[in-house]
Design goal:
Radius of gyration: 64 Å
Strand content: 5-15%
Length: 1279
């Protein structure tokens, strides 16, 4: 500071004019003033602080620093309370200020305009200590860093209207924030037009939010509100609310300051909230906060506050309600029966509201005021005496002695009650009302009634009996000894509360009637239409209670003074219409409850955290409600729980539980008995806790329908020993499904609905386990990979010779690799789309069975499993005894199943581009089994010796005709066809014979009918039993036919052996093919060729042509018109038999050689063997001729024919001799003519004539000899 004054004009005259109208006027303040200075001048002589300066110390050196300020009351925030001249002399923390020093630093002389008087809080020279407010002085310290709690001066609302906050400039934000408070004060109706001065502690509750915002941003708490958690919470809350146009300063202040102050124990703030913050029509809100004020007064032992606020709260909550056990009882119970508040009871009746009056309000509200209320009062006072040492035990004794004198109703009165129940519930329409209303039968024998020895009703059981009407509470309440009440599945309606008359003579609802039933332990009223409020503790000794499947709308709060609070073990209130907050229901839950079911209702809100500790609880369900908020840690509350079901809270707009699952290490120890955890159908997020895997007895885990993210923790696999069901479906899980989960055996694992976030594929073992819901998901579990796994298992893959293949990256990939593509497995080939097109596992020691899953390889083209040990019947589940799924494989081009031990039947399979080598199986014989494999569609069949043959029969072997199932059927058909052809031949010869007769005028006949028979006999064979067919002897016919049958029978084995059945053991079929292991094709090893078949044809023609021709001749003779019908028939039968036998032998030779001949020599040998059978007819004839020549001669007419031949020969000789004579005569005539002409030679001398005569004679004798020989041999000579 330079030692030279500035030329600043004086303001002493204007200063007083500018003093505020309500300025300070204390007498202790000096009134003289002098010209103000900005600061102490170096030329001014020091003066004592007691000597007034030229300018009064209280006078500001400038114009008023904020509008509407009063320096004696508050300090202006714009000058950091430098203008404050009040008498506050203590810091905000309670430190008393010291007197300002007369000398040294901060003395009045140096700061003549700062008002440093006495020990009052001041801010000399606007000390910027970071607090922006007045401070104290302490010797040795100076200005201490602890501001005084001096109020700030806020601008009046009128001045705020004239301010332009948008112009910016100094303090514009602070001014605007200060004006928000002023305007809020004016708007609430609490502004009186004077100075607005306020500190945080006395800021108006309705405008606390604008003050907090100003205070934290600009006021004295600016340095601490950001660091103090409580202030920070309030500040953040206020900022959030005022930024929302739906919130006013008034509402924001209620929510952010008044309500928290109430929650923190400020009873007056609770009242303030009830009166000023709750909406006018919101009685529930007013009830809640007035009750809190009452409770706080009771906690503080504030008798006046209790009397003033508790009864007001009661009337606000319940109004003029005199019902017993209803609203007023619900109001007083948590206050008067709270063990923490029982200490406020006063036995003299002038302290706690719980004891005011001769009969306290809680007693009348909960127990009534009639003769039956003594037991209820005894229960209440007994409970209070257990928790209050100040309670006089004699009062309890007096109340309970009176209760003990209560006598039960007589059996007659109980019977009348039963009669009333019958009448009011439509007893005449009950399904069973045996004995009811009978005067001759004791009521103890009525249907559903059981009594004790004294005749008091013990059990009342009318389940499923069509009871209708209101619930008979008043009548049931008279059954004092009742133990069991079962009215389930009827049509009862109304509430369970009865009625009584109070002390005013008014009929009121009375829910305390059942307090007299001291033995009732089991109640079941499920399946009715009961409504209203249900009191699950309505009977003192209740153990099991079932109120499910009704229409109850609320649960009466649990009251700890009721004895059933300790006895109740099971309670089911599920499937009702209960619409209450969860925290209301969860207050004072019975401590010994073991089973609590509250599912399928409309319970809303959040669960208390922590929940009450229920060490006995085993089964807990609140599923299908409207719960929300974060899930509390259940482990400390339910240490022995077995089943927890909080699922399906996501109902309508309610999202259910949210946030993470609060699993800690306490779960492992505290929930050691947990077997079921169902949290599905909520909005739980974050990761699945890995610690769930440490629950030792967990069997059922359902976290479906949530927002769970991240990986599935592999630690869950620790549950493999106990887990039966795990549902993680419909979440947002991602990543690779842990391989550890494959340890689950027979576990239903559900992961569907997590989108495509999982990294495919899933572990193979999971995909093939029956309980995995993604097993049919092509993305996660390719069907073909799972099918290959089943093929591997069925074929005992662990015993294979080799199951590992090195891929292109040099990594060994084994079959059943959990994650690697199946296309990299040994023997598996795929197309570019990853579909399996080839499965080649030849000669790899496969055993077991061929799995039906092969049908899932829809794109398979090549299946080669030959040379293994696949055995046994193929499962019948796949339709037959073979993999019917193969039929569905439309792309198969090659199927090799041979050299295994498969039996059964393979259905027809369509193979693309089929050749003889496309489909090969062990359908040949000999087989390793009694029943060889049947395969109608195989192209090649192999046998036990690994020899094969094409399974398709060649066309020349057998013509397939509809209706023929075997070669024998075909033979019969062929026989009929042959007979038809012979018949056609007969007709042809018949018409030829007719034609000759019609066109021939004369004819030289050398034979007769007898000669035709002789010729027929010679044609069919004189030395063959076939000739017997021409005989007229029946025995001969039978012998002939028997021989024919014998020949056919002898040829039958050849026919049977030649049948083309590669799977028939009776066939002699020879397999000439070999299917090599290193090739997909087969080779024919047979040597039979065209040369062999040529020799076969020549051999057959040489031996059989004569008989075939003779048979045709016989048919021709049978068509001659000169024969009788009988003769024609014999000729025709003989011809047909001869032709058919000949053709049959040729047919048998052909098919048999084709079946078994493998070389050219074999075909000749086989043919000779068959042709030998052709001579059987002659052998039999020779045998019969030896045995009985005469009979044979008789049958065949052999001697007769010889005699006729001799006679014919003689006649022929005579005719020849006559002819010779005629020739000689003609020769002589010719000779004479020659001589006459001069041309003849002498007879004796002419050598030519002699020679001619000699030749003529020789020729004649030769003819005679030939005719004789021919006739004897049975042949015809045509002249």
């Amino acid at each position: 500071l330079i030692d030279e004054d500035c030329d600043v004009p004086s303001c002493e005259e204007e200063a007083e004019e500018r003093m505020p109208s309500g300025g300070p006027s204390r007498s202790s303040r000096p009134t003289d003033s002098s010209s103000p200075t900005v600061g102490p001048s170096s030329s001014a002589a020091p003066t004592s602080s007691l000597v007034p300066t030229a300018v009064p110390s209280w006078a500001p050196t400038v114009e008023p620093h904020c509008e509407g300020s009063d320096p004696e009351v508050c300090g202006c925030w714009s000058v950091k309370q430098d203008d404050y001249r009040g008498t506050i002399a203590v810091t905000a923390k309670g430190i008393e200020c010291e007197r300002w020093p007369d000398d040294g630093k901060y003395n009045p002389v140096d700061y003549p305009h700062s008002g440093l008087e006495e020990n009052y809080c001041r801010n000399p020279n606007r000390w910027t200590n970071g607090h922006n407010r007045a401070v104290c002085f302490r010797s040795g310290i100076g200005l201490i860093d602890d501001p005084c709690d001096v109020p700030y001066c806020f601008p009046p609302p009128s001045s705020c209207d004239e301010m332009d906050f948008s112009a910016g400039g100094g303090n514009s934000e602070e001014r605007e924030a200060a004006c928000d408070y002023s305007r809020c004060l004016e708007g609430s109706g609490d502004y009186d037009g004077g100075t607005i001065s306020v500190t945080r502690k006395d800021a108006h509750p309705h405008c606390s939010c604008p003050f907090e915002i100003w205070n934290c941003q600009s006021g004295h708490s600016a340095d601490t509100c950001q660091d103090t958690l409580a202030r920070r919470i309030v500040y953040d809350c206020c900022l959030e609310k005022v930024d929302d146009p739906n919130w006013t300063f008034y509402d924001a202040s209620c929510e952010c300051t008044t309500k928290p102050d109430c929650e923190n124990g400020n009873d007056r703030q609770c009242l303030e909230y009830a009166e000023r913050c709750c909406k006018e029509s919101d009685d529930a809100c007013k009830c809640e906060y007035k009750t809190k004020a009452c409770r706080l007064a009771m906690e503080a032992q504030d008798s006046e506050g209790q009397r003033k606020w508790c009864f007001d709260a009661r009337d606000t909550c319940c109004g003029e309600n005199y019902d017993v056990g209803q609203c007023k009882c619900d109001f007083w119970d948590p206050l008067c029966m709270d063990p923490d508040l029982l200490g406020s009871w006063e036995t003299e009746g002038d302290g706690s509201v719980c004891t005011i009056g001769q009969v306290p309000d809680i007693a009348m509200s909960c127990c009534g005021f009639d003769d039956s209320s003594s037991l209820c009062l005894c229960d209440m006072i007994s409970f209070a005496s257990q928790h209050s040492e100040s309670f006089v035990k004699s009062d309890k004794n007096a109340a309970c002695i009176e209760a003990s004198m209560t006598e039960p109703y007589s059996p007659d009165i109980e019977m009348e009650s039963l009669r009333d129940i019958y009448t009011e519930t439509g007893g005449d329409n009950w399904l069973n009302n045996t004995g009811w209303m009978s005067d001759e039968m004791s009521h103890c024998r009525w249907y559903g009634i059981r009594c004790d020895d004294a005749g008091h009703v013990k059990e009342f059981e009318l389940r499923n009996n069509s009871l209708r009407g209101d619930f008979p509470s008043n009548h049931l309440a008279k059954l004092y000894n009742l133990e069991v009440l079962d009215l389930a599945n009827n049509a009862l309606r109304g509430t369970m509360a009865g009625t009584s008359v109070n002390y005013l003579g008014v009929v009121v609802i009375d829910a305390s009637l059942f307090s007299n039933l001291r033995q009732l332990s089991r109640v079941d009223v499920s399946g009715n239409s009961l409504s209203g409020e249900v009191d699950v503790l309505f009977a003192p000794a209740l153990v099991h209670a079932n109120f499910s499947n009704n229409k109850f709308t609320s649960v009466n709060p649990f009251k700890r003074f009721k004895p059933s609070h300790n006895t109740l073990r099971e309670c089911d209130v599920s499937h009702n219409s209960i619409e209450q907050s969860a925290d209301t229901i969860w207050k004072n839950v019975p401590t010994n409850i073991e089973r609590l079911v509250l599912s399928s209702n409309a319970i809303f809100g959040t669960l208390p955290s922590p929940l009450e500790k229920l060490e006995s609880l085993r089964h807990f369900s609140m599923s299908s409600n409207h719960l929300s908020g974060e899930l509390p840690d259940l482990s400390p509350s339910f240490p022995n729980i077995k089943d927890i079901d909080l699922s399906n809270q996501k109902q309508g707009e309610n999202g259910g539980f949210s946030g993470p699952i609060p699993v800690t290490f306490n779960w492992i120890t505290n929930l050691a008995t947990l077997t079921t955890l169902n949290l599905g159908g909520n909005q739980l997020s974050n990761r699945i806790p890995a610690l769930l895997g440490n629950l030792p007895q967990l069997r059922y885990l359902d976290l479906s329908e949530n927002e769970m993210t991240g990986l599935i923790p592999p630690e869950l696999s620790k549950l493999a020993a106990t887990l039966e069901f795990m549902n993680l479906s419909n979440n947002k899980l991602s990543g690779e499904i842990p391989i550890e989960l494959t340890s689950f055996k027979d576990v239903s694992l559900l992961l569907e609905g997590n989108g495509t976030s999982f990294t495919p594929p899933a572990p193979l073992s999971l995909c093939t386990s029956g309980g995995f819901d993604l097993m049919n998901n092509e993305h996660m579990c390719p069907v073909e990979r799972s099918a290959l796994k089943r093929i591997y298992d069925a074929a005992k893959g662990r015993e294979w010779t080799e199951d590992t293949k090195v891929d292109s990256d040099g990594i060994a990939v084994a079959w059943l690799n959990e994650y690697k593509s199946h296309c990299k497995w040994l023997g598996v080939s795929c197309d570019t789309s990853g579909h399996v097109i080839g499965l080649n596992l030849t000669n790899n020691a496969l055993s077991g069975k061929l799995s039906q899953s092969i049908g899932n390889l829809a794109f398979l083209e090549v299946l080669d499993v030959r040379d293994n040990d696949i055995k046994g019947y193929i499962p019948s589940e796949i339709g037959g005894e073979a993999p019917g799924e193969l039929v569905a494989l439309k792309n198969l081009e090659c199927v090799h199943l041979h050299s295994n031990r498969i039996v059964g039947s393979i259905p027809s399979i369509e193979v693309l581009n089929a050749t003889d080598f496309s489909f090969i199986s062990d359908c040949g014989v000999p087989s390793a089994f009694n029943d060889p494999l049947q395969c109608d569609s195989c192209g090649m069949c192999c046998n036990l010796d690994e020899d094969c043959y094409p399974a398709k029969e060649k066309l020349f072997l057998r013509f397939e005709v509809r209706g023929t199932d075997s070669i024998f059927d075909f033979m019969w058909l062929l026989a009929l066809i042959f007979i038809g052809l012979c018949t056609l031949l007969w007709y042809a010869f018949y018409f030829i014979d007719r034609y000759k007769k019609r066109n021939t005028v004369s004819e030289r006949q050398f034979s007769s009918v007898g000669r035709d028979e002789q010729y027929a006999l010679e044609t069919i064979g004189m030395e063959s039993v076939y000739s017997f067919l021409l005989a007229k002897n029946m025995l001969a016919w039978l012998i002939a036919l028997g021989t024919i049958v014998l020949q056919v029978w002898m040829l039958t084995p050849f026919v049977q052996g030649a049948q083309f059945s590669v799977s028939d053991d009776l066939s002699d079929f020879v397999y000439t093919w070999k299917c090599l292991r290193d090739s997909l094709e087969c080779d024919d090893r047979g040597d039979l060729n065209a040369s062999g078949w040529t020799v076969f044809v020549l051999l057959m023609a040489a031996f059989l042509s004569k008989d075939l021709i003779n048979g045709i001749k016989m048919i021709a003779y049978s068509a001659k018109g000169r024969h009788t019908l009988r003769t024609k028939l014999r000729f025709f039968v003989g011809g047909v038999v001869l032709c058919m036998i000949t053709a049959y032998i040729f047919y048998v030779s052909t098919i048999y050689n084709n079946a078994i001949a493998t070389s050219n020599t074999e075909i000749i040998i086989n043919s000779v063997a068959i042709l030998f059978i052709m001579e059987i007819d002659e052998c039999f004839y020779a045998l019969l001729d030896v045995i009985s020549k005469r009979w044979v001669d008789m049958v065949t007419g052999r001697n007769t024919h010889e005699q006729e031949n001799d006679a014919e020969l003689q006649r022929f000789k005579d005719e020849v001799n006559d002819l010779k004579d005629q020739v000689l005569k003609q020769h002589q005539i010719i000779q004479q003519l020659l001589e006459h002409c001069g041309m003849a030679q002498p007879q004796g001398d002419d050598p030519d004539v002699k020679d001619d005569q000699i030749g003529q004679k020789k020729r004649t004798n030769s003819i005679v000899d030939n005719r004789s020989a021919t006739t004897s041999s049975g042949n015809e000579v045509v002249l």
